[in-house]
Design goal:
The protein is an alpha/beta fold and 342 residues long. It is built from twelve helices and twelve strands.
C-alpha cells in the first residue's frame, strides 16, 4: 500500500540567471514499511524533494503537483495542520546536523521540546522520554545536558535520528545522514538507522549520493538527475541490471569498478539540455536523444526508466549497444572518449 505518492511535482525558484527547475515533473511512490533510496549527484534536486514533503521551503518557491500522504494532499494542508504532521506523522533528519541543531540549547532540551509540544508532557516527563530515546540511539543519558558542539559528527547524527524518530512517525526522511562521516562511523549510523526504522515498521526516504549506502539497506531505489527521475525500481534489479546509462555510470564510479566516471558535468537546472538531460554525457545516445524528451516508461511492476535507447531495445542489457547508424558524430566521439565509463 502506498504511504507517499508524489505526482508530477514541480518546484521552481527565481534566481538571478532565470528560473531554477529544482524538481521538474517528479513522480515517485513509497510503500508502507519500505526503505526507498533517492540517489543522485549533488545539486540534482533530491534534497529539495525531501524539504517540500515537509513543507520546509521558502514561500518564494513555486510548487505544483500533488503530494499524497495516506491519500491526503500535503500541498493543500493549512500550515497549522502541517505543523502537527511534522515530527508526528513525518520525521526528518536534516543535512548538516551542526547547522540543523540549535547551538544555544542542550540536545536534551531540543528533544524534550518535541514531547512537550506534541504530547503535552510536563518538563520532567519529557526529559524522561528524551533520556530513553537517547539510550535507543546509543547516546549516554547523562549527555542530555551537553550542547551540540560537544558532540562529534557521528554523535550529532545520532541526536538527529533521536529527534526524527521521537514520535514514532510513519515516515522518516533522512537527508544525507552519512555525509562527512568516516567509513566506520558511517557504517554504524546506517546500521542503526535501518534497525530502528525496521523496528518501528516505519517507511524511510533515504536521500543520498552514496550508492553503497543505498545498496546496503534500501528495498527500492530511485535515480535522480537534473531535477528528474531517470530510473526507479527494486534495489536488487537496479543494482544488478540498470536500465539507464546514468545509473550504470553511478555504479561504475564505485571503487570496486575502478572509480570510472562519465565525461562532462551535470547540467544547469536553469537551462537544462533539450531532449534527454543526460545525452551530452551519454556514450550511447541516438539522434533523437538530443531533441525529444523521453517519457518515464513503466518496464515492470513499480519499475520505470526514462530512456529512448531502452525503449528501442526493450532490454536493459542492450542499452549500451545503441544503434550506430542513428548516432550523431558528437555522440560517437563522446562514446569513444567515455567507453570505459559504463
Amino acid at each position: 500500500m502506498k504511504l507517499l505518492d508524489i505526482k508530477n511535482l514541480r518546484v521552481y525558484f527565481e534566481a538571478e540567471g532565470g528560473i531554477v527547475k529544482a524538481n521538474d515533473g517528479v513522480s515517485l511512490e513509497l510503500g508502507e514499511s519500505e526503505i526507498l533510496g533517492l540517489i543522485g549527484e549533488t545539486g540534482c534536486g533530491k534534497s529539495i524533494l525531501g524539504r517540500v514533503v515537509m513543507r520546509l521551503l521558502s514561500e518564494k518557491a513555486r510548487v505544483e503537483g500533488r503530494l499524497l500522504y495516506k491519500g491526503q494532499d500535503l500541498l493543500t494542508l493549512p500550515e497549522n495542520k502541517m505543523r502537527l504532521f511534522r515530527g508526528k506523522e513525518i520525521g526528518i533528519m536534516l543535512q548538516n546536523p551542526a547547522q540543523a541543531l540549535n547551538p544555544v540549547l542542550t540536545v536534551g532540551e531540543q528533544l524534550a521540546e518535541i514531547y512537550r509540544f506534541h504530547e503535552g508532557l510536563r518538563e520532567r516527563e519529557a526529559k524522561e522520554k528524551a533520556r530513553a530515546m537517547f539510550k535507543r540511539v546509543g547516546i549516554k543519558p547523562d549527555r542530555l545536558g551537553e550542547y551540540p558542539h560537544q558532540f562529534s559528527g557521528g554523535m550529532q547524527q545520532r541526536v538527529m535520528l533521536a529527534i526524527g524518530l521521537a514520535l514514532k512517525p510513519s515516515l522518516l526522511i533522512a537527508d544525507e545522514p552519512t555525509k562527512g562521516l568516516d567509513p566506520s562511523t558511517k557504517h554504524q549510523i546506517v546500521a542503526l538507522l535501518s534497525a530502528l526504522v525496521r523496528e518501528e515498521h516505519s517507511s524511510l526516504l533515504l536521500i543520498t549520493h552514496d550508492l553503497e549506502v543505498a545498496a546496503t539497506i534500501c528495498d527500492r531505489i530511485a535515480v535522480m538527475y537534473a531535477g528528474e527521475i531517470l530510473e526507479a525500481g527494486p534495489a536488487k534489479k537496479i543494482l544488478s541490471s540498470p536500465g539507464h546509462p546514468y545509473t550504470r555510470n553511478l555504479l561504475h564510479s564505485l571503487p570496486k569498478y575502478g572509480l570510472n566516471v562519465a565525461v562532462g558535468q551535470s547540467p544547469s537546472l536553469i537551462s537544462p539540455p533539450l531532449g534527454c538531460r543526460f545525452h551530452p554525457r551519454c556514450g550511447s545516445c541516438l539522434k533523437k536523444c538530443s531533441k525529444i524528451h523521453p517519457d518515464l516508461l513503466k518496464t515492470g511492476p513499480r519499475t520505470y526508466v526514462r530512456c529512448h535507447v531502452y525503449g528501442k531495445s526493450g532490454k536493459a542489457d542492450e542499452i549500451m549497444k545503441g544503434a550506430p547508424e542513428e548516432m550523431s558524430e558528437k555522440t560517437k566521439n563522446t562514446a569513444e572518449v567515455g567507453r570505459c565509463h559504463f
